[in-house]
Amino acid sequence: MADEDEKLDIQPPANKVAGKGNPLLTILVIVNTIAALGIAYFQYSMHQKFATQPSVTDIVKAELKKSEELETNTGTAQEEDGILFPLESFTANLAQGDGPRRFVRLNPVLKFSRSSSEEEFKARKPQIRDAIISTLNSKRPEDLLKLEGKNYLKEEIKAAINSFLVDGHVVDVFYVSFQIN
Asked: I need a labelling partner for 28 at 20 to 30 A (CA). Which of 17, 63, 96, 127 fits?
């Protein structure tokens, strides 16, 4: 009997019931899961958006392909006649990246179509220079160090200037001097 008296009844405490958790913790886990799923969806949608945009190399390759098709169709490269319009050299700041501030010195020559009037270029010279400087200010030095970047810059300059010309359009842009410091 003494052995039976020594046996203790071990029972869990009355205030802790198995299967019940803190409701605040459950709500926080649900909110955290919803937030994580929202962030994952946002990142996925941004990735899809950037994946559909063409890169600089894609644009340059497409332009080269167009010019090669012109050559194969006619047998010779066709060059459009135009009026050359040299601009004075100027200096523009490049977009700030890591490291010291960088700038570019550029001396461009614009080739306008034959249908263009020389009076319009002279009248719009400040607007042309502003378009070129604004385009250069948005570029980083790494963008312009490679040949593809310089060719892409030519296309951007042509598009920016052609957006406000009335009588003619820019056919090509030539760099007489191009220096990045």
From this structure: 17
Close Cβ partners of 68 (under 8 Å, ≥ 6 residues apart)? none
| Annotated domain spans of the chain | 82-180
What does the pLDDT look like over 19-50, one tens digit per residue? 567 899 999 999 999 999 999 999 999 999 88
- Residue 16, Ramachandran bin (φ over 0: left; ψ between -120 and 50: alpha; else beta): beta
Tell me the β-bridge partners of 153: none
DSSP class of residue 114 equals T
Contact 173, 158 (CB under 8 A): yes
User: What are phi and psi for residue 39, nearest 5 degrees?
Assistant: -65, -40
Residues near 132 by beta carbon (within 8 Å), at least 6 away in sequence: 87, 90, 92, 106, 108, 157, 160, 161
Q: Is-contact 121 110, C-beta < 8 A?
A: yes
Q: Quote the pTM value.
A: 0.55
User: How far is C-alpha 173 from the chain's CA centre?
Assistant: 22
Cα distance between residue 34 and residue 127, in whole Å: 51
Closest CA to 112 of 68, 161, 78, 150: 161
**Dist CA 126 CA 87 (whole Å):** 10
Six token digits for residue 32: 């955290």
